Amino acid sequence: MLAYIDIKNLKNFSEYPFNLSMDEKMKQLLESIVINGIITPLIVRKKDTYYEIISRHRRKHIAEILNIKKLPCYNIYF
Question: What is the pLDDT of residue 78?
Answer without folding.
Answer: 54
